[in-house]
Write a structure and sequence with these properties.
The structure holds three protein chains of three kinds. Chain A is built from ten helices and twelve strands. Chain A is an alpha/beta fold. In chain A, the strands form two sheets. Chain A has an eight-stranded mixed sheet, with helices on both faces. Chain A has a four-stranded antiparallel sheet with strand order 2-1-4-5. Chain B is mainly α. Chain C has one domain: MetI-like fold, CATH 1.10.3720. Classes of the chains: A alpha/beta, B mainly alpha, C mainly alpha. Chains in contact: A-C, B-C. The interface between B and C is large, with 66 and 60 residues. The complex binds adenosine-5'-diphosphate and magnesium ion (MG). The site of magnesium ion has 3 residues of chain A, from helix 1.
Amino acid sequence: MNVLMRLDDVSVRFPVGRRRSVSAVDGVSLDIVAGQTLGLIGESGSGKSTLARAMLGLVPAAAGSVSWQGEEVARMSRQRRRDFTAEVQMVFQDPHSALDPRRRVHQSVREPLDVLGRGARAERDDLVRAALADVGLPAHLHDRYPHQLSGGQKQRVNIARALVTRPRMLVCDESVAALDVALQAEILNLLGDLKDEYDLTVVFISHDLGVVGHIADRVAVMYLGRLVETAAADVLLDAPRHPYTEALLSARPDVHAPGAGDRIILRGDVPSPLAPPSGCRFHPRCLHATAACATETPVLLPVADGGTSACLRVAELYGPRPADATRSGTR
Amino acid sequence: MRIASAVASRLVWTVPTLLLATLVAFLLQQLIPGDQAVALAGEYATDEKLAAIRADLGLDQPVLTRYLDWIGGVVTGDLGTSYRTGQPVTEIVLDRLPVTLVLTLFALLVAIVIGIPSGVAAAQRPGSWVDRLFTTAATAGIAIPNFWLGMMLIAVFALQLGWLPGPGGVDFADDPGNALRALVLPAIALGMVGSAEICRQVRSAMIESLGSDYVRTLRATGLSRWSIVWRHALKNSSLPLATILGIQVSHLVGGAVVVEAVFGLSGIGSLVVEATNQRDYVVIQAVVLLAAVIVLVTNLVVDISYRLLDPRIS
Amino acid sequence: MWTTLSKPARTAPRTSAVIWLSYGILAVVAVVVVLADVLAPHAPNHQDLTSVLLGPSTEHPLGTDDLGRDVLSRLLHGTRVSILAALLAVGIALVVGFPLGVLAGYVGGWPDAILMRLLDTVMAFPALVLAIGITAMLGPDITTAMVAVGVVLTPVVVRLTRAQTMAVAGQTYIEAASSFGARGVRRMILPHVVPNVVQPIVAQLAVLMGFALIAEASLSFLQLGVQPPTASWGTILARSYTFLERAPMSIFVPGAAIALTVFALNIVGEEVQRLLDPRRR
Ligand SMILES: Nc1ncnc2c1ncn2[C@@H]1O[C@H](COP(=O)(O)OP(=O)(O)O)[C@@H](O)[C@H]1O
Ligand SMILES: [Mg+2]
């Protein structure tokens, strides 16, 4: 397995007021394997967008490091950093506000090439046309302004802009959440096709397990800035090994077949990340919490089927850990 | 305790701003082109007088030293000496201040008495003909230069009808009654723009307030419309009102300069014009600083009293 | 007189007659500014002491003043002088205030805090008093007067621009641009920030112009701006005021010219703002 990007114990903090700070991402370690689609899920406010920003180097990591093909991004030279920028691109949640209202579609899509200073103007225009064709935006729309396009068309433009530099990794932050359901499927299919065509590694962020389970190879679950579980997508959907994942799964509207009665409802709101609960951050809302959960901080440890889980009672609740529980496999 | 902290928090803002304002007023003198001593004393001053001025102002000292020297005087009430009349500037200014203060106060009254009811009336039905009439009138009111309005008032009410005194102020000490009558037209001229501004701002604050859940709840309780509008909705939008009054004072003090000139009133406005014509820079500086102090202090007072009166703000 | 720009009041729907009237007034003013020489029947400063204070006639449509000068010609030339002076003041405020506002809004942090503090201080001075103070120190003439008005208007422009820039800086398209490496003046500020900030500021220009026109008239009226015999709205009014008792109507036309122009500017400014309001789309 070829690890493209490695997050090592990454924390991101934002200053709030004078002396306090909110830790939006707290000690996340994660490997992104070339060619895979990694799903990242969690409720709103769990730090997914912040983690995505950290991946692109848009926010500095307060602790830990992000490495790209073995090289730490924060220590890259200017030139390497430019290459990195071209190789990792992002598609934002709201297709409308991600496009500058005063630039025409083709100008917006060409801009990454302009900034990187790639090739002659005519070559750039060719690349722009090709990228827009790849995302299926008809040529007569290339001269339009964003407000003249529909939501789906705008998101295609955003995707084209992210692909025009021929990146190796694409981070999609809730890229379909703002669209209606029919369009969601359309854009998801498009992303699937483009992944093959452009040979992409994808990080797909969503708060919707249904969407993620559908397209991801692996899934990482975040809660209040921390990872609580990682697993292969089918394993996670089938046999979650963390109470939070279980709760997310049962909250899905399409899951009510057998035993609709044991649906787990997440009690209360997500606590403020300004004052996260002690011990396991999920314990105030957890059905299985014990006294120990409020004091002891669980770490991500390997579980069966190549996954990891950060639950103190994982063995009790979901069966024993694999025999060869070495720390090397915890990523 | 609450009072103390409200006062303290405003002082923390006002005191540094006041200090900076003294710096701005002081630095104004640095704008005078050429030799400051010559500028201050006039072209025909003797060498001894120039030397005296240089020594007095410490013109050979660095700017910072001079500023500290000057500000030391200012905080003890010594604004320097006029090089035109030889009088202490503080005396000159205090002599002229009451007229301006009374005029500004009258104008503020005019602005409030016309502005608030018309704003409230316009807000009753946004878009109705009453609303259109008042907002268009307010836009026109803002566009009319106060000194032109003053001239027109003089032409009609003093010259044609002879109801009120025309230009040329009356000394308070001589004849208080006529002195006040002489302030009626200037106060209207000065306050009219303010009333238009207040009308617009009260209108939008009231529209917001009348649309709030709070007022809708009151309606449901069957309270009379009059009491809802005047007791509750207006009070509910009183934060913008306090802000508006703070801004108005600044506008009125500025406008007083021209209105005083039109009506020949001897306030600090006409003082600064006279001082400019005589190049009495020390007096100009003092008036400019005083105007800022008046604005800052009234804003401080409005703000603190507002915090004391309204329990919602802490 | 000094309109508050910081908090535009919620505007009422205007009848279209008022709006078209305003466009018409501004069109007339524009034509007069360009063609004052052609339109004026006489030279503005030509005195004819044999015909002073005449009433309207075909020779002098608005009569003559106390020096026998043609009032209409003076008004037409004065319009040009007043408008150009106000444009100068607004231009100065824009050239200084716009970049500062963008910088303060985009960079934030302590440079922003210091700048805002300074502007708060400048704004604590009543606008006209500070303008007089600056003019008086520099030596009264029209250029220094308009520089002074420009200085007084600058904080208003900075605040407007800064608020707008802060709103734009929080937009996703700014983050998107930085995600592919756009930064600095050439790649971020000029292509993304400035175009999105400019438009709402342009809508405020009309209001700023109105402010500057009244300031010019006030300062010139006080003899601190345009100097006689040059005609401007302020100097014409100041002169007519001296013979108010003999010819009371002579103050009417120049004052009405100011009031109508400023009125039209405010109406058009509001209308432009309403048209640009994104909530309308
Ligand atoms: N720029 C910022 N400044 C301060 N706090 C922030 C900032 N960005 C995000 N946060 C906080 O960090 C937490 C995680 O936010 P985010 O990463 O946007 O979560 P998600 O994308 O999962 O909804 C939230 O509590 C949010 O308020
Ligand atoms: Mg998010």
